[in-house]
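User: We ran a pulldown and think these components assemble together. Before we commit to crystallization trials, I'd like a predicted model of the whole complex to look at. Sequences follow.
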Amino acid sequence: MHVSVLLREILSFAPKPTRRILDATVGMGGHSHALLKEHEEASLIAFDRDERAIELASARLAVFGSRAELHQGDFRDGLASIPRQSLCYAVADLGVSSLQLDDKDRGFSFRFDAPLDMRMDPRGGRSASDILNTASERELERILTEFGEEPKARAIARSIVMERRTRSNWTTSAFASLVRRDAHGRPGLDPSTRAFQALRIATNRELEGLDKGLDRLAELLRPGGRLAVIAFHSLEDRIVKNVFRNLKMSGAFELLTPKPVAPQDEETRANPRARSAKLRVVEKRPETVS
Ligand SMILES: C[S@@+](CC[C@H](N)C(=O)[O-])C[C@H]1O[C@@H](n2cnc3c(N)ncnc32)[C@H](O)[C@@H]1O
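Assistant: Here's a predicted model for the assembly, 290 residues in total across the polymer chains.
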């Protein structure tokens, strides 16, 4: 079961009153459900790339009837139809969900043997296995270095290229064993963790255009409206931090979290996956007319 991260904090940053909410990454609908429950006057539009997430969130949010409208797709592509200055609160809880990580058939985790797919939206794009088979050695090294900060990126990229001479279909186990030959772990961290993260980010192009997507969300806020973003790794958080810094420098936004908000100990004890979460929030200045 997916446990929503920083739920109390997401609720506490909601402007009052909140009438129109956008959830860019609805997942299992935990944040959306709590927001709609607390703000009886609000309606919500939500996105997720993952069909299964949309199915589950739709069922969970059905109690709110027409107040919740869900769309399968990437929020970075889905914002064009939303009027400017219409949102009171936009939230984005980036990255992968436990639903995806714990699905033993989708290839997100080395804990289960499965085809190495890793696509959040399997309707299109290259699977992780396709990337391993088609990217150049240099490109593989770049993916592992840039998205996984993997010190053994070069050696692993070389091993992938050697291995693919005889292998066309990669599984999670095959990839994890190959990486473990070269990479080092540490207590509590499997040596293939970084490489899995890197490959997942590349497969879903998670960082591409994220800055533009966040800028667009900020544009859609009404004066006094807020944008709250949860990032799970430093690469993502760096992008959020830079976008928010530029918004603040434009003079039209106030940064409500000079330091990112992290989960309380109580939350990380109950949900260790929350450990790396960081929440940042900006508010569009009430007097702003853009
Ligand atoms: C951490 S989960 C969200 C959990 C949700 N906030 C909750 O409370 O249940 C992240 C979700 O974002 C989705 N996702 C990631 N990037 C996305 C994007 N660019 N557009 C739409 N959905 C995205 C993933 O498919 C995943 O379901």
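The radius of gyration is 20 Å. That may be worth checking against your pulldown data before setting up trials.

User: Thanks, that helps.
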